[in-house]
Amino acid sequence: MRFTFSLSLLGLICFAASLSASDWPHWRGPDRDGVSKETGLLKEWPKEGPSRAWLNTDVGMGYSGVSIAGGKLFTMGAREDTEFLICLDASDGKELWSARIGSRLGNNWGDGPRGTPSVDGERVYAMGGQGTLICAQVASGEVIWTKTTTSLGGKKPGWGFCESVLVDGPRVVCTPGGSEGAIVAFNKQDGEVLWRSKEVTNGAQYATVTPIEHNGQRQYLQLFTNSLVAVAADTGKQLWKTDWPNGRTAVIPTPIFHDGHVFITSGYGAGCKLAKVGPDNQVEDVYAHKDMTNHHGGVVRVGDHLYGSSERTWTCLEFKTGKVVWSERRVFGKGSVTCADGMLYCLDEGNGEVVLIDASPEGWKEHGRFKLEAQSEKRSRQGKVWTHPVVCNGKLFLRDQEQLSCYDVKAQ
Predict the structure, then answer these.
(1) For 117-191, where are the alpha helices, taking DSSP H only?
(2) 288, exposed or middle or buried, with CB in 10 Å at 0-12, 13-18, 19+?
(3) pLDDT tens digits, residue range 253-308?
(4) Domains of the chain
């Protein structure tokens, strides 16, 4: 482990006090929905794009996203044969510390970790591409405990473990898969197993556990290749499930829950569906079609509408009906999306171009675009710019492998 920074107890207290409602402490942001709470951002970009605040060229190989909390940025990357959890100063991109996770995941589509760290108070949790989960001190990177999914009977999926672990109340939740229970909850303090979902024994896939509140009960949703499953947060007992026979190749995007309804989508021709969950956890399909076939760029809900990339077509759907409101194919390539201050930040995975558009059912209306300048020369030939954009504290964060860029998007 490499340490380049330390804090006193006073520093820890200051960190906790500095956490902001606009922070991005885990996968898909504060509410885990890909929507930032930021306001006061640029509504129009200059011709050359927003100005770059800083660039770090050594965050390691991998597709790991970024989390930001208390002025610190957390990500993961592979350096030589080892995967690390890495902490930077979010204001200037300088490295504060790194903590060893485990051996490097090797894969034809690109080596290294895929998930996003989760910050919870004075601790940060991260799972590497081989399925090793660590809990570390936010201040120093000192590793408090470590668990491996293989010790729980889990089997690494074909493209490695991509899940961003959920920290919820006293629990850290992830999906090693396997016959002993696919979903596991650990005690976040010491890593001891609290429960396993014994009725759910699917193999691990690539989606992340989603917490919801439904009829006064805390539930965890997880998407597998054949079904969407909900388990009780306190016990892991299965509460309901609905079939998803279309996800045979892989399921990656995070489910979206709103007003008693769950939207799921997958790539590889699978399509999408909306399921309604009743007061007694009975489930019925509302619609299912292929007008939103999202690979792994994610979908965001803004009001009554969904936005995302359906293969090479950017699409807006009505959430409750599934009706296509608009679709644009020629304007932009397939990619990922984040929403902030009423705008969509769309990233083309093929060439690294970023576009700013209205999050509006009125249609695709651009307010600027630019091409990510710092792109990796080490990326696998089969790899693309797959790390999702993040908007936090007036900054736009974009990553391509070892290159992490920060742009200023705050309105002056």
Answers:
(1) none
(2) middle
(3) 999 999 999 999 999 999 999 999 999 999 999 999 999 999 999 999 999 999 99
(4) 2-408 (2.130.10.10)
